[in-house]
Amino acid sequence: MSEVRVLYHLVRADFLERVRRYSFLGTLAFAVWLAYLAATGDIVVRLGDWRGRYNSAWLGMMMTLICTSFVSLVGFYVVSNSARRDEQTRVGRILAATPMSRTSYTLAKAISNFAVLCSMVAVLAVASVALQLLRGEDRHLHLWALLGPFLIVALPLMAVIAAVAIFFETTPILRGGFGNVAWVFIWAAAFIAGMKLEQYDLYGIGVYVRELTAVVRSLDPTYKDAFTLNLEVGQPPALHVFVWDGFSFSTAFLVSRVLWVLGALGLAALASVWFHRFDPARERARSSAGPRTEAAVEQSEAPSVSATHLTPLAGSRSGRWFPEMFLGELRLLAARRQWFVYAISAGLVIAGFAAPLDAARRGVLAAAFMWPALVLSRMGAREDLFSTRALVFAGPNALTRQLLAAWLAGSSALVVLTSGVAIRLAMLGDLRSFSALLAGTLFVPALALALGNLTRTPKAFEAIYTGWWYIGPLNQVPGCDYFGVTTANARPLQYAVFTVVLIASAWMVRQARMARA
């Protein structure tokens, strides 16, 4: 069988396997939701008090930027589990017995990732046609002005995201939780850098910003740069509307898009260098010497059977169950951590006391809430990761007790890390900010438990929480700032309610699974 034929069948089989999953429907539902927000005016492109008339050119630009801004971030997490799924389901062992080369496998996975991402882009492209007709400001369809930006701007970006996903999966240090968290920062850095690049802007947003800024400035000489692509629920509409008929992409920009696609293919091929081809012996060798994979980390953190001492299962001891279970959950959170983890944690506590209060609330607290993210992410999925569900929930009232102990253990860790700032706020009598900080320490472990139980993997928390942290505390978006970087942003009651809902959700998911067992 030729290499091209092998590649085709690998791509086809992987894509068909994905589209038969409920997660694929969720992927399309996310794209439909973005289209709905654009249709209702909750996602808008504005230049101060100006916006464009909803014609084909403007909608093509706006929906393409929604692709490059939102789908590029979420899409990575949607497609970044294909190789790991083959490893978990043992399909990889079957593939390893075929003439498939390592490069063919990583290229096939990248192309399959690209096909899944293209399905999301296609939903938004079709929605843009419907949106123009529904808006009714200009019903004259110009298909190239409407769909051309998807082809030229969005698809090359999706190719890069697809290749980055398989590269992360095969690179030891990036394939686990660290890679899931790091992607948000890489995405943000590339987004900001793209705004300053002329032709090699991966996201394509800088090209549009420069063009539209020049158009608005010609209409309003007092206009100052104020380009935004945001969720603007409940915000007043733009005061002025201008007609924009689009622009022709330069030859240099078109060449740069081709280079991005070629770079994506090269990155997918490079991923094969670290791909172990599902060889268990090689995987063990790599995990014992060099950077540890996520599987190796999980195995190293799993309790050793030889060192475990089991006691007879007795009746419920209502007076002693909580301290024992709570301390057990704390020991699991602290298990096998390197010395520098405790050193950095102590440094965050000291910085909370010593730094100027404003800097401590903005910088130290943000770091303190992100530092234990990879540890907290496994709280809700630990029983599935280590196959200990039957053992953990064998005792009386174990579901409620273990859930409560795990939640309070995670909250206690955050309370310690944020204690410096919390004590200073309490001493100043800023009860609103103190309450918001306390609500944040209770909310984050509840989110980890709910998402871990729902998805049975730490990946969902790592992705959602990192994005929430970036949007909320780091950029101080009201309503998303879960620990109140400023007193004005504090929402203690809102996040207290969120915490109760999340804990209840985690309990119901576990109860349903135990009932089916």
3D architecture notes:
The protein has 517 residues and is mainly α. 69% of the residues lie in helices and 3% in strands. The protein contains 23 helices and four strands. It has helices at residues 3-19, 22-39, 56-79, 82-88, 91-96, 102-135, 143-170, 177-196, 205-219, 251-270, 280-288, 294-301, 321-334, 339-354, 357-370, 373-376, 382-385, 389-392, 398-417, 419-428, 431-455, 459-474, 492-516, and strands at 43-47, 50-52, 227-231, 240-242. The chain has a two-stranded antiparallel ribbon with strand order 1-3. The protein has a two-stranded parallel ribbon with strand order 2-4.
Number of strands: 4
End-to-end separation in angstroms reads 45 Å
| Overall pLDDT metric | 82
Output the helix-strand order.
Answer: HHEEHHHHHHHEEHHHHHHHHHHHHHH
How would you describe the shape? globular
User: What spatial order of strands do you see in the largest sheet?
Assistant: 1-3
User: Assembly state here?
Assistant: single chain
- Helix-strand category: mainly alpha
Instruction: Specify the number of helices.
Output: 23
Question: Can you summarize the main beta sheet?
Answer: 2 strands, antiparallel
Rg (C-alpha, Å)? 25 Å
